[in-house]
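Fig. S4 source data, part A: sequence.
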Amino acid sequence: MTNSERRRSARVPVFHEEAAVIQSRGLELPVKIVDLSSSGALLTVVDMPALGRPDFAVREQLELSMESHGTVFHVLSRVVRSGPLFIAVEFIDERAGVQRKLNEKLNLIQVRTARANQHRNLQYRLDVIV
C-alpha cells in the first residue's frame, strides 16, 4: 500500500510561503507549511538555534496555529512522524468551526496555486514567442 493510498484526503502542496506556529510543552515553535490537507499537514521547522532542535514523539498532541483570511485559528493535532527539521501531523480537532477554517485555507491555497500555474504558463508562452 502506497502513502497516497493510505491518505484519507489529498494533500495540497503549498508553493507560497505559509507560516504557522506549533504550541506544545509551553513553547511556541515557528514552522512553514509544506503541504496541507483536510486531515493533516507536513511542516518544516524554521531553523532557530536558540530554541534547540524539537523532538516530538509519535502520537504526541500539539496545537497548530494557522492564518486564514486575516484570522488565526488553532487545530488540535497529533504527530504521525518527525525528523530533525520536519513534523507530519494528523488533525484530530473535530470542531465544525475548525473544519470550516481548514477548508477555507485549502481553497485559498488551491486558488493561489492555480493562479501561479497560469502565470508560469503565460510566461513560458511569452518566452517561446520571443
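Fig. S4 source data, part B ends here. Residues 40 and 90 are 4 Å apart (CA to CA).
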